[in-house]
């Protein structure tokens, strides 16, 4: 049995809400204003609150604000007959579970009360889990990656990590660094695709004072910043040919030459990554063959998340623990995650879990809370027609809606020629006329339509003498 606090200055509304609460087997505590509500919160334990917005004295928003400042805030649903964008946003910002408009039906209220009780969770921070950027996954593909990391971690061998965008290539690079003999040194990551070509040389190799306009002081590049550690060159496949030659020299000779300076020896491990097919780039002449083989000493390929089904739910649960508020996946939500295609791979999954953790008030995330996974997709629109989002309706209504759409499309493609439209729909012309009248469709008159029988076929042949 839960203890509900009902706060409303309207006695009739208070009693009506209390009746539903008691009928569901819970205890109802009543307050006719905000000040009394706060006193009751101090006097006895309250599990959930139904809070009116407009009240004399302390209004609902102010009461909600003061509850929000308490160490332990009960679950609160705001009920108001005057919902506005402003008070809805402010109520949700202050931690309201929901914001509903009066009047509210008995059945709807019962559902709200149950959802409020289901949302009561332990709000203590989750226990410290795995460290950030940990490799999560028990699929065969990830087990192979983990074993490879263990074998090569203590060497200085150059590694090339390949895989689609968002598969976690930098996570793998960090794992190699953290488990290797250079873990006490720095890990420096450079996204080669994000730096303009004219600045990349200085970014990687550094420059000396006066080397070019704006070079007011010496600067160490990424190679020297990663000294005795690991340099991660992300998206190396986007690097220009001229810079590739300088990278090759640095890898072979273990020296870098700052812009305007002299060669400097380096002690650094290099890990490179790309989402591109480098062998294809070699064949097309956009990537140096010698650099490819210099990087491709130990290759690690990360398959897309859609090919690692066993990793999807463990990754989702891991990302939920990183948000800071304990959330759980229901069975239907887990199934929904597995069915999704994940074109954005692990990065998309991480963003989806952060979004769900913020938006879902209850302890459990359900499949309905993940509807945005479909909404975020780019809809395919054959023939330039919009994808239809059917409303929740019965079968006859849905079929009628579909029939009307097909008729309108046939008329459009036939240039409003009803005989041609009937042929496209595989119905006779007379039936088409009946349906046009039923749906209120009035296309322009057919121009020079030939006579036709009721089958919608060619004009009937005259067999008798002309009269």
TrEMBL record:
<feature type="domain" description="Sigma-54 factor interaction">
    <location>
        <begin position="135"/>
        <end position="358"/>
    </location>
</feature>
<dbReference type="InterPro" id="IPR027417">
    <property type="entry name" value="P-loop_NTPase"/>
</dbReference>
<dbReference type="GO" id="GO:0006355">
    <property type="term" value="P:regulation of DNA-templated transcription"/>
</dbReference>
<keyword id="KW-0804">Transcription</keyword>
<dbReference type="InterPro" id="IPR009057">
    <property type="entry name" value="Homeodomain-like_sf"/>
</dbReference>
<dbReference type="InterPro" id="IPR058031">
    <property type="entry name" value="AAA_lid_NorR"/>
</dbReference>
<keyword id="KW-0547">Nucleotide-binding</keyword>
<dbReference type="InterPro" id="IPR002078">
    <property type="entry name" value="Sigma_54_int"/>
</dbReference>
<dbReference type="InterPro" id="IPR025662">
    <property type="entry name" value="Sigma_54_int_dom_ATP-bd_1"/>
</dbReference>
<dbReference type="Pfam" id="PF02954">
    <property type="entry name" value="HTH_8"/>
</dbReference>
<feature type="domain" description="Response regulatory">
    <location>
        <begin position="3"/>
        <end position="117"/>
    </location>
</feature>
<feature type="modified residue" description="4-aspartylphosphate">
    <location>
        <position position="52"/>
    </location>
</feature>
<dbReference type="InterPro" id="IPR001789">
    <property type="entry name" value="Sig_transdc_resp-reg_receiver"/>
</dbReference>
<dbReference type="InterPro" id="IPR011006">
    <property type="entry name" value="CheY-like_superfamily"/>
</dbReference>
<dbReference type="Pfam" id="PF00158">
    <property type="entry name" value="Sigma54_activat"/>
</dbReference>
<dbReference type="GO" id="GO:0005524">
    <property type="term" value="F:ATP binding"/>
</dbReference>
<keyword id="KW-0067">ATP-binding</keyword>
<dbReference type="InterPro" id="IPR003593">
    <property type="entry name" value="AAA+_ATPase"/>
</dbReference>
<feature type="compositionally biased region" description="Acidic residues">
    <location>
        <begin position="444"/>
        <end position="454"/>
    </location>
</feature>
<dbReference type="InterPro" id="IPR002197">
    <property type="entry name" value="HTH_Fis"/>
</dbReference>
<dbReference type="Pfam" id="PF25601">
    <property type="entry name" value="AAA_lid_14"/>
</dbReference>
<feature type="region of interest" description="Disordered">
    <location>
        <begin position="442"/>
        <end position="467"/>
    </location>
</feature>
<keyword id="KW-0597">Phosphoprotein</keyword>
<dbReference type="Pfam" id="PF00072">
    <property type="entry name" value="Response_reg"/>
</dbReference>
<dbReference type="GO" id="GO:0043565">
    <property type="term" value="F:sequence-specific DNA binding"/>
</dbReference>
<keyword id="KW-0805">Transcription regulation</keyword>
<dbReference type="GO" id="GO:0000160">
    <property type="term" value="P:phosphorelay signal transduction system"/>
</dbReference>
<protein>
    <submittedName>
        <fullName>Sigma-54-dependent Fis family transcriptional regulator</fullName>
    </submittedName>
</protein>
<dbReference type="InterPro" id="IPR025944">
    <property type="entry name" value="Sigma_54_int_dom_CS"/>
</dbReference>
């Amino acid at each position: 049995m839960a203890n509900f606090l009902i706060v409303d200055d309207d006695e009739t509304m208070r009693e009506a809400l209390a009746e539903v609460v008691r009928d569901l087997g819970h205890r109802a505590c009543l307050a006719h204003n905000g000040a009394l509500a706060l006193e009751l919160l101090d006097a006895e334990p309250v599990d959930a609150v139904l809070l009116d917005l407009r009240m004399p004295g302390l209004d609902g928003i102010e009461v909600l604000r003061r509850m929000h400042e308490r160490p332990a805030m009960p679950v609160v649903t705001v009920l108001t007959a005057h919902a506005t964008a402003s008070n809805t946003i402010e109520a949700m910002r202050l931690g309201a579970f929901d914001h509903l408009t009066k009047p509210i039906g008995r059945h709807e209220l019962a559902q709200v009360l149950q959802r409020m009780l289901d949302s009561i969770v332990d709000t203590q921070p989750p226990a410290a889990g795995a460290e950030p950027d940990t490799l999560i996954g028990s699929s065969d593909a990830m087990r192979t990656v983990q074993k490879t990391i263990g074998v090569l971690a203590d060497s200085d061998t150059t590694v090339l990590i390949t895989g689609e965008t968002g598969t976690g290539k930098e996570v793998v690079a960090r794992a190699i660094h953290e488990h290797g003999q250079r873990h006490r040194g720095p890990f420096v990551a450079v996204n080669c695709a994000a730096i303009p070509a004219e600045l990349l040389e200085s970014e990687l190799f550094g420059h000396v004072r006066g080397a070019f306009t704006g070079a007011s002081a010496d600067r160490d590049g990424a190679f020297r910043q990663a000294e005795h550690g690991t340099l991660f060159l992300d998206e190396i496949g986007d690097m220009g040919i001229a810079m590739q030659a300088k990278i090759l020299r640095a890898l072979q000779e273990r020296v870098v030459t700052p812009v305007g300076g002299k060669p400097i020896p380096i002690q650094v491990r290099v890990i490179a990554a790309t989402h591109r097919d480098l062998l294809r780039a070699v064949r097309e002449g956009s990537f140096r063959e010698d650099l490819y083989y210099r990087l491709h000493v130990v290759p690690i390929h990360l398959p897309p998340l859609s090919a690692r089904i066993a990793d999807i739910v463990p990754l989702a649960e891991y990302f939920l623990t990183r948000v800071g508020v304990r959330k759980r996946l229901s069975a239907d939500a887990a199934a929904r995650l597995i069915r999704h295609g994940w074109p954005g791979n692990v990065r998309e999954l991480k963003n989806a879990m952060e979004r769900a953790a913020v938006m879902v008030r209850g302890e459990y995330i359900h499949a309905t809370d993940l509807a945005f996974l479909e909404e975020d997709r780019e809809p395919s629109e054959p023939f330039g027609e919009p994808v239809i989002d059917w409303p929740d309706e019965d079968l006859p209504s849905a079929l009628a809606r579909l029939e009307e759409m097909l008729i309108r499309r046939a008329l459009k493609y036939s240039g409003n020629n009803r005989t041609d439209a009937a042929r496209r729909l595989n119905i006779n012309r007379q039936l088409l006329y009946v349906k046009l009248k039923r749906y209120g469709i009035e296309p322009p008159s057919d121009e020079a339509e030939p006579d036709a029988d009721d089958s919608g076929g060619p004009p009937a042949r005259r067999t008798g003498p002309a009269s």
